[in-house]
Amino acid sequence: MNIAAIVIGRNEGARLTACLDALVGIPLVIYVDSGSSDGSVDAARQRGATVVELDMTLPFTAARARNAGLAHLPDETELVQFLDGDCVMQPEWLTQARDFLAQHQDIAVVCGRRREMHPDASVYNRLIDDEWDTPVGETKACGGDALMRVQAVKSVGGYRDDLIAGEEPELCIRLRQAGWRIWRLDAEMTGHDAQITQFGQWWKRTKRAGHAFAEGAALHGGAPEKHWVGETRRALLWGAFIPLLVALFFVASGPAALLLLLVYPLQVLRLARRGGLAWASFSVLGKFAEAQGVLGYYWRNMTGRRKTLIEYK
User: Fold this and answer.
1) Which end of the chain has less neighbouring CB within 10 Å, N or C?
2) In the chain, which residues have pLDDT < 50?
3) Is 213 exposed, middle or buried (0-12, 13-18, 19+ CB in 10 A)?
4) 0.85 exceeded by pTM
């Protein structure tokens, strides 16, 4: 099957060159650049990649970059491996994924294990590595790295250009609605370099997740999908409603109302039995960032403001 790779990035530096170097052997590699100033474009051309430079006078989204790559694929391309520029594909992945798709004609997307390269660099990297460890088998969605059937993706209109986050799950919903299936293989796919070493970076990334939850629920929250409805509700409950309730009780009855805040450490203890204390603590704390993202989405919708990227590195 004819195959190509589409890599998107901006100012990824050495991470991009490592990404492209791992793609040697793929007949066509398209690098979509979104305004790099670190020599990424020249580095990509030196490695034989076809470079597409986005018009940065238009609002940028990763979805728009992926669509730009799709538009430059030759008509005969059957499969495309999508990659973020901070990822390195594992040597055996493409053969395993391509063979699996050849044997399962009803599957449009196949993904594997994305693994953090430096999980011990920070607690945030460890949390992200755990996040990538998704269940094996048929699944509802993939992440930014995946091997896809070009015809299937194009038949549903590609990615939604206007989504600033959550574009892959949204695409997978439309693929599944069209009769295709998504599969997670028990195979090493890519190494990812999150480079999250500061609390503020983690907060912004989690806030972006909240925005994705709210927008995803707005697009596909109805039955049977109910896409990210539960995630949106939990973010609002723990990150906005309970704090507001405590504040109201504090005004009405004084400091005794602060005892209601004990619900948070109790929730941490409850979750810790499932995933450990660190994961539980950040899961609860993250609800405040998620709620900020959800409310930000609602506010921009009400005021008609343009959505802008929530960048964390």
Assistant:
1) N
2) none
3) buried
4) yes
pLDDT at 304: 82
Residue with tokens 């008609």: 304
Please report, for the chain, the start and end positions of each structural domain, with discontinuous segments joined by +: 3-195, 217-303
**Cβ atoms of 216 and 228 closer than 8 Å:** yes
Q: Around Cβ 144, how many Cβ atoms within 10 Å?
A: 19
Return d(Cα 71, Cα 75) in angstroms, integer. 10
The CA distance from 16 to 8, in Å, is 9
**Residue found by looking up tokens 């390195």 in the block:** 88
Secondary structure, 3-state, the chain: CCEEEEEEECCCCHHHHHHHHCCCCCCEEEEEECCCCCCHHHHHHHCCCEEEECCCCCCCCHHHHHHHHHHCCCCCCCEEEEEECCEEECCCHHHHHHHHHHHCCCEEEEEEEEEECCHHHCHHHHHHHHHHCCCCEEECCCCCCEEEEHHHHHHCCCCCCCCCCCHHHHHHHHHHHCCCEEEEEEEEEEEECCCCCCHHHHHHHHHHHHHHHHHHHHHHCCCCCCCCHHHHHHHHHHHHHHHHHHHHHHHHHCHHHHHHHHHHHHHHHHHHHHHCHHHHHHHHHHHHHHHHHHHHHHHHHHHCCCCCCCCCC
Q: What is the pLDDT of residue 310?
A: 66
CATH architecture, range 3-195:
Alpha-Beta Complex (3.90)
Model confidence pLDDT, tens digit, residues 51-79: 999 988 888 899 999 999 999 999 999 99
Percent of the chain at pLDDT > 90 equals 86
